[in-house]
Amino acid sequence: MSHWKIKLSLFLNYFVFAILLNSVGTVILQVQSNYGVSESAASVLEAFKDLSIAAVSFLVASYITRIGYKNAMLIALGLVTLACAVMPSLGSFAMTKVLFAVTGTSFALIKVSVYATLGIVTENKKEHASLMNFIESFFMIGILTGYFIFSAFVDDTRTQSDSWLKVYYLLAVISAVAFALLFITKLDESAIQSVETKSFVREFTDMIALAIKPLVLVFIISAFTYVLIEQSIMSWLPTFNSKVLNLPTALSIQMASILAASTALGRFTAGIALRKIHWFAVLTICLVAAAVLVLIAIPLAKASGENEVTGWSTAPLGAFVFPLIGLFIAPIYPAINSVILSTLPARQHGPMSGLIVIFSALGGTTGSIITGHIFESYGGETAFYFSLVPIAVLAVCLFLFNRLQKKSEATIELTSTGGH
Description:
Layout: H1 4-21, H2 24-34, H3 39-42, H4 44-60, H5 64-67, H6 69-86, H7 93-121, H8 125-152, H9 167-183, H10 190-193, H11 200-211, H12 214-234, H13 237-243, H14 249-255, H15 257-273, H16 279-303, H17 317-321, H18 325-329, H19 332-341, H20 349-378, H21 380-385, H22 388-416
Helix pairs in contact: 1-7, 1-8, 1-9, 2-13, 4-7, 4-20, 6-7, 6-9, 7-20, 8-14, 8-15, 8-19, 11-20, 12-19, 12-20, 12-22, 13-14, 16-22
């Protein structure tokens, strides 16, 4: 049975939310100039987005099968379409917080549903891992597109221009198209709905019980730490480009797209490499390379001159080198998500997806707020050097995760052979 229509719908849903969620870095830069907001105050936008994701995932993940994956995604797309449509006419820092809260709430429904739906539309672990990487790659393509869409609406000639708010009309249209496509697409959820019905309390308890298993617990810490790294860089790269490298605002946003492009390439390449090389070896090499790149790129940023930058051709080398970190950290998230999900039965994919979303969101908020405060107090170079700390923590977590995964596989194999 072909699932191409629902897969296309999942890709488009992720594309829409990639643009909205990761516009936070661009919006952080814009609210500082438009509304006179400080770095530490602007960093709360990440919290409005991520804490909404965490809270809704926490409440809904164990109940998502009753709502239905398709219904949950339709609700999310409807909410976001409405929020984007009213954003330009109510533009303010307060409305920006509301927009990201709505976006976070909606993405919680989307991500849990998308991750859980993968178990329905794939036949085996390899297909699951492959589709996971391609969907996450497409997410990065959405981020890449978003930088150029937003920068096209930025007016560099006026410091406090609100022309950038008109981008939300375009995003409302894209969201409406995604809603229409999903609405006319069939998704057979009978395999999930046919399982024994449990009470909300029982389903919630099962999710908590799942979270305290050693393998799952180490995975959760790994996912939290990874997103802390990714979001601390992604959300503050436009500001770093503008305030440290002295790039014009539109160019600061555009050049942040290098991070999204390198991340998309990293995930696409990893989708191929992981078919032949064990995931732990790939991710270890990636972490070492990421740490080395930080140590090389930040001094390059410090060394950038005071020459006027007018475009890509006159931008300092540091603006090109540091975003390449995405190439190395990119494979980590989809790889560990696939490892944990493919070891669980389909009926547990909803609760497990909820745990992934909750702790990823908390990691993103933590990373952005810490980076914002370091940026304000000690400068952009120090803020980005900070990424070396969670990189080291993540290396330890992945080592433990690999050991526990091997033990889990050995236990399953022993059980399947009757202890012989």
